[in-house]
Write a structure and sequence with these properties.
alpha/beta, 1 helix, globular, about 15% helix, two-stranded parallel ribbon
Length: about 110
């Protein structure tokens, strides 16, 4: 795969991509589907892990190229939240209601 964004190691967007990729794999992104009141909508995770900027991924809200919000309610997510989520230092809101998450909330969140 070719890096269409040409991100270098000092680019904060590379770290955001890394953390969201870890989150996607930790929460079994291959089966992400809206459920409940969101079933049948196009608001799925199909563009997660695409070559596009993470700020264009479904349910990722950014301001000035930094992630501010993740809204992943009712997506059939299964797994645990990786500790690396704390590396999203600009994240102000994360919503994960209606999923099958287990384990502890990483204590690093909010530090």
């Amino acid at each position: 795969n070719q890096d269409e964004m040409n991100l270098d190691a000092d680019d904060a967007r590379l770290n955001q991509r890394y953390v969201l990729t870890l989150l996607a794999f930790a929460l079994d992104y291959q089966v992400w589907e809206p459920i409940g009141k969101f079933a049948g909508t196009s608001a799925d995770g199909d563009n997660w892990l695409s070559s596009s900027d993470v700020c264009s991924w479904h349910n990722v809200t950014c301001e000035e190229d930094v992630i501010k919000e993740l809204d992943l309610d009712y997506y059939s997510l299964i797994g645990t939240i990786p500790a690396e989520i704390n590396q999203l230092i600009t994240l102000e809101h994360m919503s994960l209601m209606g999923n099958c998450l287990y384990g502890s909330i990483p204590p690093e969140i909010g530090q």
